[in-house]
Amino acid sequence: MCKLQLRLLKLLLLIVTTLLGQRLVKCDVKQSNSCVWYGICDRVKEYNSVKIKNCAYDGPPKKLDSNGVFALNEWCSHLREDDDDVYTCCDNEQLYALNENIKQASNLLNRCPACMKNFAKHICDYICSPRHGEFINVLKKKQSISKPNKEYIDEIDLFVTEDYLNGTYDSCKNVLMPSTGQKVMDMMCGGFPASKCSPMRWFQHMGDVNVAQIPFQINYIPQKSLMTSDNKFKPMNPKIIPCNESFNNDPPCSCVDCISSCPIAQEVKKNSENFKILNYDGYIFIIMLIFFIGSLMFTVFANRKVPSKEMNHIKNKNFELSMSEQYAQKVEKFLQEIFTNWGKFCATHPLKVIFISLLLVACFAYGTRFSQVTVDPIELWASSTSQSRIQKDFFDSKFDPFYRVEQVIITAKGYQDIIHNTSNGVINFGPAFNKEFLLKVLEIQQSIENIDNGVLKDICFAPLRSANLPKDEYEVTDCLVQSIWGYFQNRKKEITDPKRNNRKDKNNFTVNYLDTLYNCFQNPFDTTCFATYKGPIDPAVALGGFNENNDTMPKNPKYERASSVILTFLLNNYNDDLKVKAAKEWEEKFVKLMQNYTRNENNSMIDIAFISERSIEDELDRGSKSDISTIIMSYLIMFVYIAVALGHVNGLSRLMIDSKITLGVGGVVIVLASVAASSGFFGYCGVSATLIIFEVVPFLVLAVGVDNIFILVQTHQRESREISETNAEHIGRILGKVGPSILLTSLSECTCFFLGALTDMPAVKAFALYAGMALLFDFLLQISCFVSLLALDTARQNENRWDIFCIIRGPKKSAQIQGNNESVLYKFFKFFYVPLLMKKPVRIAVIIVFFGWLCSSIAVISKVEVGLDQELSMPKDSFVYKYFQHLKKYLSIGPPVYFILKGDLNMSNTQIQNMICGGINCNFDSLSTQIYLASQVPGNTYIARPASSWLDDYFDWSQLQTCCKQQDSTKEFCPHSEEFDCHTCNIVKNEFNRPVDSNFSYFINFFLQDNPDEDCAKGGHAAYSKAVEILKNNKIGASYFMSYHTILKTSQDYYEALRSAREISQNITKTMRSKLQEIGQPDNVEVFPYSVFYVFYEQYLTMYPDTIRSLGISLLAIFIVTFLLMGFDFRLSSVVTLTIAMIVINIGGLMYFWNISLNAVSLVNLVMAVGISVEFCSHLVHSFRVSTKHTHLERAEDSLIKMGSSIFSGITLTKFGGIFILGFAQSQIFQVFYFRMYLGIVLYGAAHGLVFLPVLLTFIGGRRKLNDENIEDPVETPLKDMNEIAIDESK
């Protein structure tokens, strides 16, 4: 019992001690329910705002009347206690001002109920709480002006807990401003962007007296505990509502506004580690292994003994032919007869054939009058049926084409950095902020604005200009001009006025224009920073060179480090050419102004680059014309060579007789005629031409046509005319020998190009069609017109007449009977090159070297870059070329991307709204939410910002009573700033606080016409006037949600951004269709992305597959034609196709090593390479096939001797001079894609056709398929005996 009493006594002492301790603590704290102010003493005007000064009051809180209680309930209902009487430290007037200030903040924060509640609770507590004395310490008072017997509060310390600061900030830090896709903290954190904002910085801004809405200086003093260290104050610590939690009847904040409400998208680390084997590149290691194993196996194979079966076949001359061999023999004989008779006919009636040929060419060429040359880049590279083209046309038709952009990049070259000391530390400004430089920028800007007496005002994009404003009231100041001078409203005195630039802050630091700029960089949405068009200037657009690390996703850009200033003028764009005419005329004058300025302004301190919307098309046209002289010179060199090289002069005395200048010119004219006929043919058909056609097709036809000409003429020169033969019979016999080979190559090439026209890319399709038809005309003219010319030239030579000057005869003693004439090049092949190449060690080495070459190309071909850098499309002397260089170096913002929503959607349906919006009550996988989540991982998605959402802003706009107004009499739209004859709209809300169905459709037009300002930041006119398609009865059609890509520098960045945007859109579409099916609504909805560059870069998404398909179709066509015309000879057809494939693959390797990217231009060249490669291969293989020699070694030697010199002189040497000249072209496309690739095509083709192919035939060419009795061999050579053959086989 005693023990129990003792324990009770100890417990009682403990309670007493505790209560006494609490009392002792409380005695140091100010009396609860005490105030530090009550009522309003003064309204002091400071700068552009009116400051409300609260009267100092040291006493108990006072009772509110019914009006005060009603006002309190709007935002501060938590201050009401259970009693009916409400006591506060604020009167009705203070409550009205409080509600007005919170209402302005709600424009931005109301999207997130928890944030809004926490923010409002903070304002309510420090203004009206009956317990001021617990957490407010008055530091400064001033005498009231209107109430002399009273003082007003001028500065206080406000004690708050750190938990409260952090919790309130965390609930608000991710709230978005849908119209811009930025966070509200970008506008509410003073001089700091959202990325640099912190709880303390946010509250310091809310306590800064220099902010218009802040009545007096409030110093927030954060505390870690619930009591200050001196025990005098109890920090304010109201309960915080996390943004991902619901309270009362309000739902939690959405994922878009509260990162805690959604799954955090994780940044996927890109695998930078390459495939490795023994620390070597895995692919190269495997290729090397294949090379060594393959080389070893081939060496063993090549050194095998000749099988006895093969020797028995050689000895047996009476072998039986298989059915395919009999077919091949019949086809070859049939073709020889056809060509022989046709050649004889043309040689017999040369003038008639030439006349008819020219007449037909003239008829076809006349069609060039109807030809149209396409220079529009979109028409060149984007098929009208391509996805990006269809989507672009849809966007343009619904929302008008994207603005016409005029831009000037002005770089400070000779200026130094500026060191500026401020209260926040030293700020190092870049050279672009030098006063002299900025004044020069303003001078340039004003010169542009004054072009043609300020006509810019009529054509510019003015987002805040009223649609009903008369045109004669338009002003240039209405135009959206992104310029750093917008921060000063284009007022020069803001920089030059000494008074404005020598002010002192409270720490005695100089305040000048640099501080204004810095503050505007941090918060461009501060209304004091708005440009003359009454909207913000984005520093990422107006400045350049600040992204010193070239980061594509700068999190904390240092705009103050800029080295250049960028002027951007946006002009309205339309589908109607008549409406755009004025803009194009202005652009022409703009370009002339800037060209004159850069030409005449000898200022080494600045560097200017500029562009207009029309400049690319203009410069492409100019660049093509400027290179005409280079192209003509290239062709002239080739023409001269052809004319000279065709002749075979037997002595100086016969120089003018044996020359073939006229014949060569005739052959060149035939090439040009075939191109003209092809152009005319497609002119009749209405197929537009491109500049590529006129630059590339003549080169191609010249390569193919000249080779055939050389083969025909040189075979004619080597073949003796028999004594009984007439000139016509002789020519007919020659054509019979080479005609099948010419038919094989021509038919292969035509088929190759016509099938190549199956591609969707307009430029490649047009090239393939024009090239295929030109080659067809060239073939027909060669076997008719040129054969007739050859007959006339042979008759002239036989009559000993001079070339060109036919009326002059040579002396009789110089006459020479036509015999077996062999050129120097022919003798070189016959007596030196072929014997050397056919030595067994050389042949083995050739195969191994070419196999290694192929392996090396395969190893790197997948690394060839896809795309076309913009500057490569321009001549180096072009101002656009300079602009592209500056753009890549200085511009640090990504292009806008629009997510277009189309389909039959009832937008007034709440369930459908939830599939789209991003605010409270919206689906967690809505359109806005998915784009928002994508923006959280920009390294993967290339989406830099959340998308603007007209739907979310419309909801917010409809909830603010001060935003929507309509005329009293007509009920039509009235700007919210208008007071006369206007009243607040009566918008009926549903349970989600959104307009009901009928109101939703009716007031959407009001929202889209309402300009945003401080009183109603959600007005939709500026951001969404073109974003929503309004149908009849105010129904909504298509609409878009705008975001931005990350900074895109390379072609890969651009097409990967497109790929990512499509993946996001496809996922949104799939989600919405699924949801629509669940609620029984039509699911014909689609979301797709659009940006201005998509139409150009879409081709690169599938460039590799398209290239493989195009080249594969071409190779298949060549194989099929060769297979049919060579009598179903699978082996030789495969050899031709394999060799051509090797040429193309090795050219792909060349593209990697010579930095040639894969794009439409290089694809055209690769397709052309296939066609030219046929000339290097098919003639030789056909000659090999019809050779009457016995072993494949002898047949390879024979075919190379007969065709090698013609191929070398007809293709290889012909092209060298012309290709060399292309290296001096101004256009970089010519230098990179024509000079380099043409050189590679000719050299690689010659190497494979004259070195690798004949060697390959010695190993896998197969046995002789045709008897020499059936097929006539062009040149008779004595057969070796069997012993010599066996020796040859063992070499």
Question: Top keywords for this entry?
Answer:
1291 residues; alpha+beta; five-stranded antiparallel beta sheet; four-stranded antiparallel beta sheet; 44 helices; elongated; disordered N terminus; disordered C terminus
Q: What proportion strand?
A: 5-15%
Number of helices: 44
Kindly state the percentage of residues in helix.
Answer: 40-55%
Amino- and carboxy-terminal Cα gap? 126 Å
Largest sheet: 5 strands, antiparallel
Alpha-beta classification: alpha+beta
The poorly predicted ranges are 1-31, 813-819, 1265-1291
Task: Categorize the overall geometry.
Answer: elongated
What's the Cα radius of gyration?
42 Å
Average of per-residue pLDDT values = 83
Count every beta strand, where a strand is a DSSP E run of 2 or more residues.
29
